[in-house]
Amino acid sequence: MAPEPHAYIKKHLLSTKSLPVSEVWLSELLSTQRPGTTPLPALTQTALFRLLASDFTRSLEIPVSNARHVLATDISNPSIKERRISGPVPVQILDIEDIGSSVWSQVEAIERIERGESIRGREIIRTVPQAVQVEEGNSPTHTTGESARQLTPSASSGQGPHRLILQDCRGTKVVAIELKSLGAIKLGETAIGTKLLITNAIVARGMVLLDPECVTVLGGKIEGLDRQWKTGRKTRLLSALNPPETTS
């Protein structure tokens, strides 16, 4: 007898990804699918894809008894010298900042993209979108390997370390610092809403210290939040350069 889709998907996502899916969210998802005709593995993959593209505060179940799977409500308390997040705690990224690069260099990187420029070594290269090349009757130029990476525009001017704002399914937020490079976290590539699993991480003075041993990057994004974050990033950086004057 084939397993019931709802129970199977819920159990599978919890056991393989440590994601406690909300009953309501999963029921709404399955109501838009065809559980009777769609193979269960395909249905499970669809559920995972939609889950990683969702807001965890709506799609995950808040544990009633097991507090290991959520952040402590006082996680950001700076008076607590050190504690650990046992986890695994699923969280989503709400903000990312490259604290290894100056604010001005990040503004310049954004403006280069706006002008259609990229940097290769000490040279500034004018990049022409492929669509424009086709319209002008030119064959698109294909680059591979290191050349392709050098010519790819990026809004990031450095490689970190990064400062993140994370949020769990209960809505609790915390600041996290990349103590060692996570590799998969890159400004200009990592989307807002990217999902992480935090396990056995140290929290020092209200700040989570991240390294590859305590973080699993699940991927995903929240489309609306990511678009809004990208649109307002240059304004936020310029505001940091020119903070409003305070009157005494």
TrEMBL record:
It comes from Trichophyton interdigitale (strain MR816). Residues 13-58 form the RMI1 N-terminal domain. Belongs to the RMI1 family. GO terms for cellular component: nuclear body; RecQ family helicase-topoisomerase III complex. GO terms for biological process: double-strand break repair via homologous recombination; resolution of meiotic recombination intermediates. InterPro entries: RMI1_N, RMI1_N_C_sf, RMI1_OB. It holds the Pfam family RMI1_N_N. PANTHER family: RECQ-MEDIATED GENOME INSTABILITY PROTEIN 1, RECQ-MEDIATED GENOME INSTABILITY PROTEIN 1 RMI1. Residues 74-233 form the RecQ mediated genome instability protein 1 OB-fold domain. Residues 135-161 are annotated as: Disordered. This is RecQ-mediated genome instability protein 1. Residues 136-159 have a biased composition (Polar residues).
